[in-house]
Every structure is written in structure tokens, then in C-alpha cells.
Amino acid sequence: MLPSFPRPCVLGSPLAASFLPLASGAFPAPLDEEWPEAEKAEKLARGAALKWASGVFYRPEKLEGLGHYRRRETQRNSSIQSRLKSTVQSYLEGVSAGLEQLRSAAQEVQSVCQDLGAARWALLDSADHFQGLQQMRELMEEHVQLASLLHGQHLLEAHVELMMVEQLRDDILSQLHLRGLSSAQATVLSFFSGLQDLNESLAKQLWDIVGSSLRLVREDPVLFVTAVRIIEREEKIDDTLLLEATFLPPGRPKGWRQKFYQVLQDTITGARFHTPCMDAEGPGLAKHLAALQKDIVSELRVVKDLMVQCVPAHYNILSVCTATYHQALTSHLQEILREDLDKQGLFLLLEWALRVYHSPEMMGHPDLLPEVDVSALDPLMSSELVDQTERRYVMKVKASVFEWMQRTLDVEFKEWFKEEEPETDHQGFFQSALPAIVMQMLNENIQVASLITDSLQQKIYNMALEELEAFLGRLREALVQCGKEHQQDRAVPKYYISHLLAVLNNNLALSNSVSSLHPDSACREVPASLQAALDRMQKKAIQLLLEELLLDLQPLCLQLPSRKWLSGSQLVGSMCEVIDKYAKDFSRVRKPAFTLLLAESELLVANQYLRALLQKKMVCKSREERGQLCHRLLQDATQLRELFCSLGLDRSQQSLEAVFALRELICLKDPALLSLEVLGFITKYPDVSDEHISTLLDIRGDVSKEVRHVVLEMMAQHPQVLPEGYRPIFSTILVPVQELPFCLRKGKCA
């Protein structure tokens, strides 16, 4: 506003005339006539004195104190006169000083009046120039009105007035710029300094409106449309000024459209994704993701159905909001993944990002299609992040699977030592719940992973096989520990053999079920390492069972060969009874484990029989003894072979044929033909050694050194190679070391 100037005071004015006598030193003369009030006051004083005197001296005796009263009144009058004189003197001095000040003031006033008169004439000369400021005064009044309009949210009217004031300012600044009067711009800017505050106030209200746009387009779209219209006006002004490129006023370009996008994006991001740290466990994260899903779909529907109609088409407001939600979710998911999520949380996050996000329940919602399309945007989770998250999930699942498997193994180990047999299935085969628990656990995790991606399912499948292989190793160690405790006391566990048979059936069940875990039904191949672990487990269980069988057979085998046995002992019959007893127990095992167990038992029996025979406890002294030995070998081998055939083991699978072949070597009547017979023998049984053959020749008791030498020389000339798939028989049989004859120095050995 313009300053209001005081009216000029000139020499001819009344004010100046009133001070002229003072300035010239003229003062009013004293008054000679007496005041009538003084005379009246004197009369009143006299009357009051007489009244007082008459009241005091109305009795004669009172006159005696007249002198006293006279002295007192005389003193009082003297005191009063003294004070009056002092007061009058002080008053006179003050009056004198005041008069002096008045004279000085009169001189100063006269000087000021002269200066004001000169200023008046100067202002009158500049009256035409001041008329040009009238428009400025009017604009300043409008400036004040603008603030009122803004306060009342009359935004369009306020913006029109604001543009007019800005245009005037910009025109003035442009003219000054063109004339090179840059120094004067600061003065103009200071005059329009309040304009910046109005701009900021208007902008603040606009951004508040934009920040509440999702609510306003439903409740009061007019206010939001008004804000967009103002933003578009400013954008046009920016574009015009940028095209001219001659002069950019202060604060231009405003870039309010870009600010509109920024505020909208910040609002979306801040409202949904700058939340306090949620629970990293599954339930809390599930609730958070469900809320995000619901809110994002709801808000995008508002944008698609309502906000799009409130803004120009070139705003692409739906695409902008979709991209904003997408980018904000990308950052938000990365922030969540920085937490130590459990396996449920990781699964929920993967499922939500890879399945739910694109499903008809969210971005593929029928109410959003086809306008909302996130397929052109970057993935919500990059392939690297997905792979990293899947690996984290696999590690969490692996830890859980290990814990459950170890718990299952602990329960199984305790079951072995219970005072009861293991459970059986409907066919009477021993079993336990271990295979079902393990396979169900692994299969469920693989199936759950299939709900996310094929890569995650494959990772879980590989992990499951690794854990199953490790579990079989721990199960085998537990079985070994159980076997050690049983060796110390064969009564513990009470049903040791039954539980070993259950382990075999469990191993077979696991082996048959592993292929069903593979995600591809067409690929049922069991990995070699896992198959090896299953085979080791089966081999260990069979080994422990055969050790039990061996412990019962060894006392009988120690009596072979002997004269008593040669003369018709029932040792082999007793062996058959032991074998048959174990075979009945073995029948509680499913095929092919039963067949393998039976074949291994037959191999053990054949091995022990041959081992006892090759200990060279007996040497035939005559042809008759060799005949008896051959007859006994034939009877024993036949009895054992028939037993195993009756148990279901085919003759082609039996190793007892080696006993028949060995018998032929002993029964050969002509020792000269031994080299040919031995050649056929070692061809059929390539693991037989020189020591084995030499021991057999010793048992015959009729082989000369020359024949022995020929036989051994023939064996040296025909080394044998074990064919693939050959079951060794003799390689595990150790024969007694022959004692070398004592030789003197420089002498010949016998």
C-alpha cells in the first residue's frame, strides 16, 4: 500500500499564524484591573474570621487567651506567606523556562513549515507521476482480496487474480530486463514480495488436495478438478515462457504437473508402504499382504472409474498409478526380505509376488482389465531375487525336515528296544510308521513348492533327496549302534531279528516311494547316490541278520570235517533246522528283499561249509576214505540244496554248486587228470587261489609233488579274471598257511 503523506503546512495557514506572535517575541501584557473574585474571597474570609472569633470569645474569661491566639495566628500567617512566596517564586521560574522553550519551539515550527511548504510544491509538481500508481494501489487491494479468496478455498477465482498480479510483475520485470535496468528489478521484487507467499499458499492447498485425491474423487470431485485446472493453467504459462525463451520471471517454470505426479506417488507410497515393521512370522505377514491386496485393488478401481474422468487424457493417470503401486511394491518386498523371515513367511512372499499379484484376485481383477496391465513392467521380483528367496526358503525347509526326521529316527530307535514285536501289515510283513512319516513329510513340501514355481519345486525335490540320503546314513548308524548293544547281550533287544526285518521292509518301502517324489511323472529314476544309500542300508540290515544266523551255525560248522561227521553224523540236519527256523522269520520280509536275504543266507552256508572243509582238519588216508568223503559231500550238498530250493531259491542262484564241483576234484580216480579238472574248476570259479587248490590236493592225500607242480604251473599259465556280476565264493575263505621245512645253510629243501 502507498504511504499516506501529511497535508503540507504553508506560511499562510492558520496554524502558522498562531505561532507567529511567539516567533516575533510578542507576549500578552499583564492585567491591571482587579479580579472581582478576589474581592468576594476577601469578604468571605473576613466573615469566616468574625464567625470564628465570635465563637471563641463569646465569654469574657476567653479574652485572657487573646494574646495567645494572636501569636498563634501571627505565626500561621507568617508560615502561609512564606510558602506562598516560595510557590509563587517556583511558579515564576517555571513560567520563565516555559516561555524560553516556547520561543525555541516557535522557531523550529517556523522552519518545519517552510520545509513542508517546499515539499508541497514538489509534490504538486509530481502529481501526474503519482497518478500512475493508482493502478498499483488497486492491485494491492486485490492482493489482499487474494489472500481472503485462498483462505476460503475459492481457488479458481484466487488463481485468476494471482495470474493478473504475476503478469503485471512479469511485464514490469520484462521491460526492465529489455532496457537493461537490472538494478531496479530488486525494488520491483521487494514491492511484490508478498506474491511468493500467495503462490506457496496456493500450492500448499493444491498439494493437499492432490494428496487426498483418492478420497476427493469419491466425495468431492469438484475440488480435485479445480486443482487440476489450475495446474494445467500454470503448465500452459510455463510452456509459453519456455517457447519465448527471452526472459524467465522468478519461480518459472513452476513444473506443477510434475509436482502433481510426485505428490500423488508420494501419497500412494507413504499411505501403504511406509508402515512400521510388521511381524516377520507367517501370520503377521499374511495379514499385511492381504491388506495390501485389498487396498491396491480398491484404489485402482477408484482411479480407473473416477479419477480418469477428472484429469486430461494425456495425464495417463491409470498407468501412472499402476506403475507407482508396482514400483512401491517392488521396494516394499525387498524391504520385507531384509527381515529374518521364517519358511512360512518366505513362502507367502513368493506366492504373493509370483502368483497372487498377477491373478484375477489382484492385478488381473475383472474390474481392472483390460486397462490395468502390468505385463509391460519389470517383474515384481527379479529373477535373481526370486532365486535368492527360493534358496532361503529351501534352507528353512531343510532345517525343518532335518528336525522332523531326527525326531522320527529317535522314536524309531526307541521302538527297537521295546518289549514287543514291530507292527505288521495286512499280509503279516513287519513294518513301522517310519517310511510313511518320512515320505509324507517330503512329498508335502514338494507339493507345496509346486504352487509357486517349477524351479522351487525342483530345488525342494533335490533337497528332499539329499536329506533322505543323509537320513539313511543316520539310520544306518543307529542300526549299527543297536547291533553293538545286541552283541554285548543277545537278549537285548528282545525282538532284535524282527526289528531288523522291519528295517528291511521299511527300506524297501522307501526305495519304492522315492520315484514318486519326482515332479515329472515321466521321470522315475532314483539318483545313484540315493540308491547307493538305500543299498548300503539294506546291506547293513542283511549283514546283521546273517551275523545272527552265523552265530547259530558256527558251533555246528566247527565240527566239520571230522571222522564222526564222515561216518554219518546229523550235523547238516541240525544246520538245516537252524536255517529253516531263520527262513521262517525271513518270510516276514517282502520280495525282493526276501529273495536276496535267502540268497545271502545260502551263500553264507556254502561259504562256511567250504571254509570248514578247507581248514585241512582231515586228510584222506585211503581210497575208501576218499569215497566216504565224496559220498558225505554229495549228501550234505544235496540236502542243503533241496532245503533252499524248498524255501524258494532257484538252483541257478545257489552257491552250493561249488561243493559239488569241489567233490568232483576229490572223487577223481586218476590224479594225472587233475590238471584238466582243476582248469575247468578255476574257469567256473575264478576267485579260487593256488592255496585253495593246494589244500584240496592235500585233502585227497594221494597227489604227488610232480602232479601238484603240474597243477599249480597250469594255474599260473591260466590266470583268471573275475567276470562282471560274479559272486565271489572262495576269495573270502582263508586257508591255513603251510609250514615251510627248515633248511640248513647251503642245503636243499625237502
Describe the structure.
The N terminus and C terminus are likely disordered. The radius of gyration is 63 Å and the shape is elongated. It has 750 residues and is mainly alpha-helical. The relative contact order is 0.03. Helix 5 packs parallel to helix 8 and helix 14 crosses helix 15.
Structural class computed from helices and strand pairing = mainly alpha
What's the main sheet like?
Answer: none
Residue runs with pLDDT of under 50 for 5 or more positions: 1-33, 740-750
Strand content: under 5%
Q: Residue-averaged pLDDT, rounded? A: 83
Extended strand count: 0
Element order: H for helix, E for strand: HHHHHHHHHHHHHHHHHHHHHHHHHHH
State the end-to-end CA separation: 145 Å
Please estimate the helix content. Answer: 55-70%
**Helix segment count?**
27
- Identify the quaternary structure here: single chain
The outline comes out as elongated
Gyration radius from CA atoms, angstroms? 63 Å
Give me some keywords for this one.
single chain; 750 residues; mainly alpha; 0% strand; disordered N terminus; disordered C terminus
Task: Offer a concise description of the structure.
69% of the residues lie in helices and 0% in strands. It contains 27 helices and no strands. The longest helix has 60 residues, at 66-125.
